[in-house]
Amino acid sequence: MLEAILWDNDGVLVDTERLYYESTKEALSETGVELTEELFKTISLKQGRSSFDLAAERGITAEKISRLQQKRNLLYGNLLRSGVRPIDGVEHTLRMLQGRVSMGVVTSSRREHFDIIHAATGLLPYFNFVLTREDYERSKPDPDPFLTAIRKNGFKKERCIIVEDSERGLRAAIAAGIRCMVVPNRLTMDGDFSGAHGIYDTILDASSELLRLLDSDN
Fold this sequence. Notes:
This protein is α/β, with parallel strands linked by helices. The protein has helices spanning 17-28, 37-46, 53-56, 62-81, 90-97, 111-117, 144-153, 167-176, 203-216; strands at 4-7, 102-106, 129-131, 160-164, 179-182, 198-199.
């Protein structure tokens, strides 16, 4: 029985990964670090590390890195306020699934950014719960975000499935012992998705599998 779908946010529900990259790149440029797209994909989306590790490797103090992270957060928030739209097919998929299964968002986004993103997307009513970065101790690829969602809601791992877009997210799901479907985007499509329940070109393709899993329980 499928009782819950745990959705990633950035890159799955909304197309925000590029904006996060651009704001991080601008903040890091103050240190002389050139954050290329390839570096960002490797460090952040595959390894799940902070891009600011590149500044630390150059001997930049923790205090300055903290200031740069605050600057990045402000830059990112400003970019988000210009408007973020759901990825094509997302709202249609959520509408089909609503009422048939519990759904929650489990994201590495800070709550302030999550709230800005969804101020006008219209997606939040489809979800039963949301976990942001402040709701757990260790971020993806650590399994803590998903394990926290399971624990707080009383779900059984074998009755849940996760929808992710990145190698980092898939690694977190596997470490948590929960099935994971992957819908890559342009920034994540070259990731290693070994161990995924399935890899899908679009969210609509993934929705067909989710509906199949729900129907197979009847």
